[in-house]
Amino acid sequence: MSVVYSIGGCVLGGSGIGRTAGFAVDGLVRHNVLNQVIAANSTKPTVGSISVTRVPSHIPGLRHFLPQVMVNTVGDALHGYLTAQVMHTDADAFHGWAGMALPAIQKAKKRNMRVVLERASTHILQQKQILDDEYKVRQITSNAYNMWQVHREVREYELADQIIVPSTYAKKSFVDLGFKPESITVIPFGVSSDFLNEKPRESILDKEPYLNALYVGEVGFRKGILYALEAWTRLSVPKGQFYVVGPIIDQIKPFLGKYAHDDTIVFTGFTDPKPYYTKSHVFLFPSLEEGSALVTYEAMAQCLALVTTDNAGSVMRDGTDGLLVKPQNVDSIVNALTMLSTDLPLTITYGLNARSHVEDYTWDRYGDTVASLYQ
Questions:
Q1: Kind of pairing, strands 162-165 and 46-47?
Q2: Fewer Cβ in 10 A, N or C end of the chain?
Q3: Which of 23, 6, 4 is nearest to 15 (CA)?
Q4: Residues 6+ apart with CB under 8 A from 62
């Protein structure tokens, strides 16, 4: 079976989903099933012996005229249209990413090609509902979604023969909305070899006698940072530092003011998180919604115990690699942090277990599993 693979909205082989897509394409090449790869941009002109077909779906400067949500909508819709114009129709299957593939999917179906759609998060309607509810709690207006694009993506789901998601939590969101379980395939993401090639760190108990926690990611509403901050300030046991690493979105800034004078909380802004991994015991990530957050894989590779939600889509094992907490529940986070801060040797053990477990989740494994769908 031969496959046309398409990805927009990013640089193939770059960062984010572009990096993820790059590993998928590498897997398709290794298994000799790649017919064509289509991208808005790419870090290299060829993949194996196949030239990357570039389409101009990224419009420079558009953000100066439209809100970001509309910039993404226009770019994604344009990518699907352009993909349909250049895709090879002699292939057996089409593999696209949710939100940027509808015209290509429609063309593939007319040619009796198998359609596989990849979605990095939960069903978009569940994702939207979770965030809408959170915005209501915070009494602010949500502008994260364009409903025209939402309806287009839902139509992609309906037309796809198979949908790939990265976690059982994401799969459940589709099944709960009426999709057959067998039509949803879970393929977890991976952890970069840069992290796995490093030796597990030595114990930090002597250097850091009090619990240090770390959050990495966009400082916004979706990833639960406000619940993490509130829980940290409520801790009644001795504690060290809570490092919050990531860019801060404008909408959340008014909610962060009360933490500005807390010496135990450090907002770093956008920076390399690696130095903070090495000085932390716990990765605190009580996300409201994810597909499978890549930072959780990285934290596990750095021997951090996880305090996270099932909604984060992590491969973490509750009670072995860390502790699961309830989403949007400060008390649950306080209880977990209290337990870990009063037993740092156990916390270190969780971190070492996490490292051992995540070593199985390589990007080669991800790419090979994607390729297996076409063999």
A1: unpaired
A2: C
A3: 23
A4: 71, 74, 75
pLDDT, tens digit (0-9, with 9 covering 90-100), for 73-100: 888 999 999 999 999 999 999 999 999 9
Of 77, 109, 74, the closest CA to residue 93 belongs to 109
Q: Give every CB contact of residue 108 below 8 A, 6+ residues apart in sequence.
A: 4, 87, 89, 93, 94, 114, 115
Q: Which CATH architecture has domain 193-358?
A: 3-Layer(aba) Sandwich (3.40)
Rounded to an integer, what is the distance from CA 224 to the centroid of its chain? 14
**Domain boundaries in the chain?**
3-187, 193-358
Superfamily grouping for domain 3-187 = Glycogen Phosphorylase B; (3.40.50.2000)
In single-letter form, the type of residue at position 339 comes to M
The Cα–Cα gap between 225 and 233 comes to: 12
Residue 372 to residue 33: CA distance in whole angstroms: 10
Q: What is the pTM of this model?
A: 0.94
Report the C-alpha gap between 21 and 13 in whole angstroms.
Answer: 7
What's CA 226's distance to the chain center, in Å? 19
